[in-house]
Specification:
The protein is α+β, with helices and mostly antiparallel strands. It contains five helices and four strands, in the order H-H-H-E-E-H-E-E-H. The protein has helices at 3-12, 21-25, 35-49, 79-92, 116-128, and strands at 59-66, 69-75, 104-107, 111-114. The chain has a two-stranded antiparallel sheet. The chain has a two-stranded antiparallel sheet with strand order 3-4. The two termini are 24 Å apart.
Length: 132
Amino acid sequence: MKEVNADLLKTLAPTVFRGDYWKRGGGPECSDGWLSILVDLVIKLELRNAKRLPQDQLEATQIKEKFGSLRFYVANGTPIDREDIKNAETKSMDTCEDCGCQGKRYSDGWIRVLCDPCIIVWKERRRHEGRN
């Protein structure tokens, strides 16, 4: 994810990202197409955190793409937090990872969710890298 977008998430949800998450991994390990999904999610989590004691607040531990879907891992998540996270992860399964448009699962050895134009770009990039 571009640094500017990672910074936006951190600004929107300072308690969700209060730990050493940014120091360890440098931010979300996914493409920018899922930014709107992540923005919606972290705002919900941050608003909920504001009503909790500091020791009970949810904390993000990892954000990444795996097998063509978003993964958002946390500590101290409640059942409602986990439901919101699951909904965001489900939404990612038909949202293009690269541009955020409606997408579909695509696999060429890597499993990704891409729209038709981004599949073309992905194939061309892979071809230039000598991977297809």
